């Protein structure tokens, strides 16, 4: 069956970094645009970043541009989100998804001193 499993979340200090991973199985990963979205407490779901199936193009929300980098390894069926210069407002549960159809269970990111 389809699975998306996120990892790499945790507690980081403001200005720090975290790298999220999302391991996919059960579908043809290399054919799907992959994205990251997040949901902060008492807020709606916010799209964060996306990457084309072959990695040729990437997209970012204005709130994370120049701080976050999305990448993928189709040989490992994994998509990554490198998060630098973290801010308290980046605190949220982060979800990876495949074209908005398949979703992971999420990983908590907390940015606090």
Secondary-structure map:
Blueprint: E1 3-7, E2 10-12, E3 18-25, E4 34-39, E5 45-51, E6 58-60, E7 68-73, E8 78-83, E9 92-98, E10 102-103, E11 107-111
Parallel strand pairs: 2-11
Antiparallel strand pairs: 1-3, 3-8, 4-5, 4-9, 5-6, 7-8, 9-10, 9-11
Order of helices and strands: EEEEEEEEEEE
Q: Could you tell me the mean pLDDT?
A: 97
Beta content comes to over 45%
Percent in helix: under 10%
> Major beta sheet, specifics?
7 strands, mixed
Q: Specify the structural class.
A: mainly beta
- What's the total helix number? 0
Shape: globular
Distance between the termini: 40 Å
Structure commentary:
The chain is mainly beta and 113 residues long. Helix content is 0%, strand content 51%. It has no helices and eleven strands. Strands 2, 4, 5, 6, 9, 10 and 11 form a seven-stranded mixed beta sheet that branches. Strands 1-3-8-7 form a four-stranded antiparallel beta sheet, with no helix packed on it. Strand 9 and strand 10 form a beta hairpin. The chain starts with a strand and ends with a strand. The mean pLDDT is 97.
Features:
single chain, 113 residues, mainly beta, four-stranded antiparallel sheet, 11 strands, 0% helix, 51% strand, globular
